[in-house]
Amino acid sequence: MSRYAVQIANGTTTDEEGTIGYDRPLRTFFLQAFPDPETDECALWLCAFIEERPTLESIIEAARARGYEVRGLTREMMLAMLKEAGPPHPPSLVNDSA
Length: 98
Known about the structure:
5-stranded antiparallel beta sheet; 2 helices; 5 strands
């Protein structure tokens, strides 16, 4: 599973420590931001199900549809996630990327 720190903005509110990545066992990109300080539950949590967002574009579009913008996503981050998402892998409950 890859994880990268990005900035997530929603109007005038910004989370400087948002997370974007690719979950190989679930074959989906994910995005998390705005954790509650007491519960650690994120106000923005996209993709927890198998193949929910199979492309990087689809996770960015899903965030925008909810009023969020992803900032700070570098070319290197995108290439690494796209490489990891490359060939399809069967679903797995075990993290075999280690």
